[in-house]
Each structure stands twice: as C-alpha cells, then as structure tokens.
C-alpha cells in the first residue's frame, strides 16, 4: 500500500484535529477523544472537512486514546469503545475517497523519570493498536513522540497488527530546535525507527513549517523509507487568553516545494492548521 501511495507522491494528509474540535465546542483542557462517544457528529464533521479539502489520508480522533492517558480523564475503561468509534467515524467521513490511518499518541508519562514502566507501555499500546486495527483502520500513525524508547514500543505494538505503520517524532528542542525533548536528532530517530520496522518515518508538530524543511532533509538523508511531515502553522501567540496561530494557509503552502525537494512524500499539517490549509496545499500542488 505504501509504495502504491508514494508512486504518485506527494500524498496530502490532514491537518489539526484539536483546534477544529475546539472550534466546534470542545472546552479548553478537555480530551477530545471522548467526543467519539458523546459527540460523534462533530468529530465526523472535522474528518469530512479534511476529505472534502483534498486529504488522501485522514487520521482518527484517537491521539490520547491509550489507557494511560485516558485514566486521567475517566476514560480508561472505555479504551476499545473510544478507539473503535474513532475509526468508524473517520471511515464514514472517508466514504472511499481517503484512507484512514489511526492516530496513536504518547502516554503522557516519562519513562526516564520513572513515571511509568516498559511493561505498562507495552500493554497500553498493544491494547490501543488492536482496537484500531479491529475497527478497520488502513494504517497506524505513531505520532508526537519525544522519547525514542516509547516510540519504539508503540511501533512494535502497531506492527503486530499487520498494518502499515508511520512513526513520527516531534523536534522542537536543543540549541537549533531540531532535537526531541529527550535530545534525539532526526538522523538518529530515522535510523532507529526504520530498524524498529516502521514503514514510513516522519515528524509532526514542532516549531513550524519553516523548521520542517531541514528536519525533513535530515530524516531523508538517514533512511530510504518514505518521509511523512505534518508541521505546525508557525508558533502560537497568546491573544486574549487564547493560543492563536497567525500563519495563513497560503504562506504555509508556500513551503510545499521546499518540503518535497527535501524528501517529503506525505504532507499535511499539525497544530494551527485547518481544512483550508489542506486546500491551499492542494492548490499549490496543482501548480507544480
């Protein structure tokens, strides 16, 4: 599947989910994954908007739907239900026009600080990956990882389902803002995640689309696996108590040629982006 997709690359993926859910009424600090059960129509509206905008792959509203993260929000006993619903919602929105790659985010606990142990992470990611695969996801995306050990655990759990697996780290730390919070550089991450078996290697979130170009190039230099890039719409500003991203869709899409030249084969957006950003990417791609 992956090779067929990248044969006609770049492949447009979706943008941010959190900001879109907030625009539809999700309260600040609330966990959007629970809306898969309580407000499926609003979640589906987000997924459908990305498909309509031109996304060939959309994710699922399951970023924090592992047992460890959900336990902090009274959702730990509904892991299977929340993940199954997330896949079903995105599949309804896709209606054969897009593939559904289900999102697996970090636990929110630090191994290095002793906040969680390896067996607990293995169990949590295995449970989530099985639920997503059983619900009919076309692939799995391990994303926004800062700890390479945790990322590899999640990748191994995802690979056990037999589905294609994307593995993404977030690079926004260090002197040049090109390291993960744990000090891992993109070349190191690419080699390690490819060795773990991920079919696609990438980066998401981070400090902005401009910084994504050199990170993309660094990833591509270290692996022959296709590169997946979902950067933020720049850095947010605090405006009247709310985080606001000022970058416009057209300015974001202007980086498309640079990203493709750097090796990106899957391109979308993360925090601060919207369906309009995907439309701008689609329009820019049509002009290349």
Task: Summarize this structure as a short list of keywords or feature phrases.
alpha/beta, two-stranded antiparallel sheet, 288 residues, single chain
Order of helices and strands: HEHHHEHHEHEHEHEHEEEHHEH
Q: Extract low-pLDDT stretches.
A: none
The profile of the biggest β sheet is:
8 strands, parallel
**Roughly how many Å apart are the termini?**
25 Å
| CATH architecture level-2 label | Alpha-Beta Barrel
What share of the residues does DSSP label as strand, in percent? 5-15%
> Can you tell me the CATH superfamily?
Homocysteine-binding-like domain
What count of domains describes the coordinates? 1
Widest β-sheet, arrangement of strands: 1-10-7-6-5-4-3-2
The tally of strands reads 10
Helix content: 40-55%
Structure description:
The structure is a single chain. With 288 residues, the chain is α/β, with parallel strands linked by helices. The chain has one domain (2-286): TIM Barrel (Alpha-Beta Barrel), CATH 3.20.20. The protein is 44% helix and 15% strand. It has an eight-stranded parallel sheet. It has a two-stranded antiparallel sheet with strand order 8-9. Strand 3 (99-104), helix 7 (118-134) and strand 4 form a beta-alpha-beta unit. Helix 4 (40-53) runs parallel beside helix 13, helix 8 (148-159) packs parallel to helix 9 and helix 10 (209-222) runs parallel beside helix 12 (256-262). It is globular. The two termini are 25 Å apart. The model has no long low-confidence stretch (mean pLDDT 95).
């Amino acid at each position: 599947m992956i090779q067929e997709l990248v044969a006609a690359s770049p492949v447009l993926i979706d943008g941010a989910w959190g900001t879109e859910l907030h625009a539809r009424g999700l309260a600040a600090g609330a966990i959007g994954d629970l809306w898969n059960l309580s407000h499926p129509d609003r979640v589906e509206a987000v997924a459908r908007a990305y498909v309509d905008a031109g996304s060939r792959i959309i994710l699922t509203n399951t970023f924090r739907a592992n047992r460890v993260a959900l336990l902090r929000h009274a959702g730990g006993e509904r892991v299977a239900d929340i993940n199954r619903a997330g896949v079903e919602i995105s599949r309804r929105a896709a209606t054969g026009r897009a593939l559904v790659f289900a999102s697996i985010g970090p636990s929110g606990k630090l191994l290095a600080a002793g906040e969680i142990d390896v067996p607990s992470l293995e169990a949590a990611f295995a449970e989530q990956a099985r639920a997503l695969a059983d619900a009919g996801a076309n692939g799995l995306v391990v994303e926004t990882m800062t700890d390479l050990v945790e990322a590899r655990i999640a990748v191994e759990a995802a690979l056990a389902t037999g589905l294609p697996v994307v593995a993404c780290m977030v690079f926004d730390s260090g002197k040049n803002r090109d390291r993960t919070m744990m000090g891992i550089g993109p070349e190191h991450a690419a080699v390690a995640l490819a060795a773990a078996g991920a079919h696609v290697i990438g980066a998401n979130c981070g400090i902005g689309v401009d910084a994504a170009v050199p990170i993309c190039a660094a990833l591509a230099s270290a692996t022959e696996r296709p590169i997946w890039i979902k950067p933020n719409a720049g850095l947010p500003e605090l405006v009247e108590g709310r985080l606001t991203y000022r970058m416009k869709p057209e300015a974001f899409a202007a980086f498309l040629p640079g990203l493709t030249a750097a090796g990106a084969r899957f391109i979308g957006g993360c925090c601060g982006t919207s369906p309009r950003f995907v439309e701008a990417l689609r329009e820019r791609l049509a002009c290349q």
